[in-house]
Amino acid sequence: MKFVRYQKAGETNWGMLEGDVISALAGAPWVTREPTGEQTLIGEVSLLPPAEPGNIFCVGLNYADHAEESGTPMPEEPNIFLKGVNSLLGHEGTIIIPTWPGRVDYEGEMAVVIGKRCRDVPEEEARDVIFGLTCLNDVTARDLTKKDARLTRSKSFDTFCPMGPWLVDSRDAGGRKIETRLNGKVVQSSNTDAMGFPATRIIALISRFATLYPGDVIATGTPAGIGPLRAGNVVEVEIEGVGTLRNYCA
Asked: Which of 138, 99, 69, 110 has the alpha carbon at shortest distance from 202?
């Protein structure tokens, strides 16, 4: 099942997507799946990020090939950091590339969206708190990662967290092909089975120190092949069985 968060005529709603038809829901899908009776075509709306997170947790160096290209050994446990919610951007939105911080990179990732409030979740039970999966681009001001002791600034520019196009209500984060394309050319290609730390372990570790709430987002890391974005580029992140997130750069 696909769920979308969308805007039409200035109003924001959640809906269930079947084919090209959106059936509006009375609330977020982890709260209710009750339809309001209103329907609209997907081509008549603007798609918004399919979550309204209190926190966006990210994982650095979760693919061995990306750690290798970064010249950094794989960590013994997930390297967790936060990305500002101000950075959220929807499908087909425009990533604004600032000139002053230097190089700005794409990082295609799979994101899991939490479906229930939880704390201290055992890894073997972590799958149960996942509501669904979506595509995410962890856009990064690369040069700032070398200047700053923390990643907050480099990761949290406005528009630096494209997410979408929709949310698929699957808890099966493993075994999915993930691919990033820049202007139609494949620049990242991997499988979520290659993650050093699976989504369930990441959830367990985050929930040791932070309560997770419905709608919170966990970006699970990027594979090798990161590279720069420039104005005029089109960048796509595709995840098998989920969808394709497309954004433009200016």
From this structure: 110
Q: Could you tell me the residue range of the domain that residue 120 belongs to?
A: 49-249
17-74, pLDDT tens digit by residue? 999 999 999 999 999 999 999 999 999 999 999 999 999 999 999 999 999 999 999 9
In this structure, the answer to whether residues 90 and 106 fall within a common structural domain is: yes
Residue 91's nearest CA partner among 8, 164, 21, 161 is: 164
Specify whether the CB–CB gap between 167 and 47 falls below 8 A: no
Omega before residue 165 within 30° of 0, cis: yes
Q: Cβ distance 115 to 214 under 8 Å?
A: yes
How many Cβ atoms are within 10 Å of 4's Cβ, its own excluded?
Answer: 24
Q: Same domain, yes or no, for 53 and 162?
A: yes
d(CA 215, CA 228): 30
